[in-house]
Amino acid sequence: MADNSKIKIIAVEGLIKSDNTRLTKALAKLMSARPILEETHQAPLISFPSSDPQDFTFKKHLLRLIDRHRAQKQLWQTEIFHDIVISDYLFYADRIYARLSLPPEDMPLYELIIDFMEKEVAIPDLVIYLQRQPASVMEKLSVYYHARKPGFHADLLNENYVTSLCNEFNEFFLCYRWSPVLIVNANRFSPDNEQHALDLYHKIQKPFTGVLFYNPPVPEFIK
Prior knowledge:
CATH architecture: 3-Layer(aba) Sandwich
Number of strands: 6
Structural class: alpha/beta
CATH superfamily: P-loop containing nucleotide triphosphate hydrolases
CATH topology: Rossmann fold
Number of helices: 8
Shape: globular
Number of domains: 1
Order of helices and strands: EHEHHEHHEHHEHE
Largest sheet: 6 strands, parallel
């Protein structure tokens, strides 16, 4: 049960990473919590001596997993100084990306590694999933890459992969049973909208179990 007096660790997850980070920062401010942001724990880029793209993908994925594991282990130390900690990702959701990105021959080693890591990672008291439709994800990604890569064309985005990722995320969180899950309609929600953030903050004060769906109270929102 999500009882505000007992919530110590919150994880925010969704396909648009910038939204996860912005919501984490907004909630941390409202709740006087410590944000755990992946952007502040990025492992240095390593140039792997490999001509195999699949091998490079596995090593790059493993680097991110190790970096996340190191940051998550710090939760045990931060709880001494902060009543609440909010992370802008859910460690356990890494399996979704692994299933879709890694070749089958790498999965046994991946499962062995993540099984070991998960034993040392705290289970959140509450998970907030920012759910978007595939078309909305494609639009947000297109805007993101257009702003950072001149000449980028939306046709370069893999729509089938994005759709598969959305479906996998939806199934994962509908079946997630280790913590209460608040599924937010992110098609209408903006972390930068103070009304949205404040209403969501009030929503998580009320105890609930299982999966709860949430829509922002006003139709206007900031993209």
